[in-house]
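Request: Mind sharing a record?
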Amino acid sequence: MPFKTIKLFLLILFALACIQVRAQTAACNGSYGDPVVKLDFGSGVTSTGPPLSSDITTMAYVTDCPNDGQYSIVSSHTSCHDTWHTVLHDHTGNAGGYMMLVNASYAPSVFFTETKDLNLCENTTYEFSAYVLNLLKLSSSDATTVQPDLLFTIKKPDGTILAQYDTNTILPTAGPEWNKYSVPFSTGAGVTQIVLEISNNGPGGNGNDLLLDDIEFRACGPNIKVGFTTTDNTQPQNTCEGQVQNYNLIADLNSGYSNPKLQWQSSTDGGVTWVNIPGATSLSYAFQFAANKPAGIYQYRIAAAEGDNINSATCRVYSDVRTVTINAYLAKPSITAPPVCEGDALTLTATPGAIRYEWTGPGVTADNKAQNPLVIDNASVADNGDYQVTVFSVGDCATVSDKVKATVNLNPVIPVITPAPICKGSVTILNETTPNAKSYSWLPVTGLSDPTSASPAAKPAETTTYTVTVTSNEGCTATQTVTVTVMPVPEASITPQKKIFEGQSVVLDAEAKYADSYLWTPAEGLDDPTKLNPVASPTDDITYTLTASSGIGCGSVNVSVFVRVYKKIVIPTTFSPNGDGFNDYWDIEALSTYPQSTLNVFSRSGQKVYTSTGYDKPWNGAYKGYVLPSGTYYYVIDLKNNAPLLSGWVFIVH
């Protein structure tokens, strides 16, 4: 057969082996007794333990890595073969606990036999159990690898088999996994000693390597239910030291014994030792804790056995343990409650610690009553008063503290001050008079005579807002702001010249800062000389002067404006330069008041017949020394003051 075919065949066999169903572990369906036999291979400070006696195993003992047909007693396995799991401790995790490391022999064989310590009770059912770990890694296994397969045999000394259990193939796993295997058996009449054999069903050579640990025998009997007052009440019971408390334990024993006998037991050392309770041999046990019974944990269980086997610890089975705890009261708590200022968190701390707390006092609410520390946010004087806390130990044993007074101090109340505005360079006093004040602190310090004074002199160069922090005698603080308004010397401005025609008005558009009173002089032609911007209607050229003054005495300022009043131009439409002394000139009224003005006159054909600058001498209707003929002539006048041109016609009559 080709090699590839052989390899494929072996892989198929391995796959079939891996899907084989493990044998179901048989277990006791009732209550257990304490272990009457426990073979755990001991423990020690060295990594290997002593060999087993020759009547237990015929395998060869080695202290290092065992080969086929050899074993070791070890507390861990880390480096024998890279195909084996790394196992750092025994099944229970005990520090230094030993376990048996087996490298199976080439042929199936019995590798473990125990007889001398297996003394049991007759007519009693027991459960045998052991823990086994397959050392072979899943990643290192294939169809050629032999996996462990153990057979546990329990028999009488004469060889009669009482029970057998075959683990079948113990499959490899990705990581180290302990498996528990167990089987119940009955000793029967007259049987008090048994023999345990553990056989290796598989050959060695390529695999079949394992760890064995914690071999136990314990009695197995009918199921026992136990509770307080009823079998369903299995919760631990709590009471407080000094209280008288009655309890009644009730048990229910399933069928299984033909002549069942019972015995209640108690333990006060956490179940290490158990003591029979005299006379407590029925399905119920009533007892009372007296007021002087010391605090501690008291455990109870009931033992059951067939007939007189009840007198032997190796024959009994036990119920689950039920517990009653007498809890000691905590020491009287003390409370610390440092005084605080209103608005801060008031914190009250109870010591020592407890299971829970219950506070009373003015600031206690449903939300904070169980806190420790008790924190009352944003405390106020309404939270002042006596506080008390009740602390509870396990079992709700209550201890009440003494009352402690908590104090919430008022913050300083700073009066609001509003100083009058001052002139630049002047001084004002910031007079703070806060009751119960211990100290003051002003910021910024610029312009202040003493920033720690209650009434510093302030001389700021400009308007400044100061913040004062006042600390009370109790250390509480508050702040207030004070603004000192600094008024500078008044300022004013205006366009220096205004122009109007006679009969018009103009607003004197002055601007002023830091002034609150105004006066224009002269008052002639003004609608209100006390306004900042009066309406001026002068008939002639005039200069107005504004005096802007500070109402708090910070000085005054003057500005002036010249108002030019242009006269109204009246232009005649006809004149008669005939020398009769009447209306011989074109007399344009008020044009002479415009010395820069120009006047041009044109004939109907567009010929310029007259021109002048200014109009000191009226036109006589002549052109180049000759009197113009009667007719219509056209004129254009430019006053040279940015006013629109004046144009029209004039008629010369002879």
User: Anything to note?
Assistant: Confidence is low (pLDDT under 50) at residues 1-24.
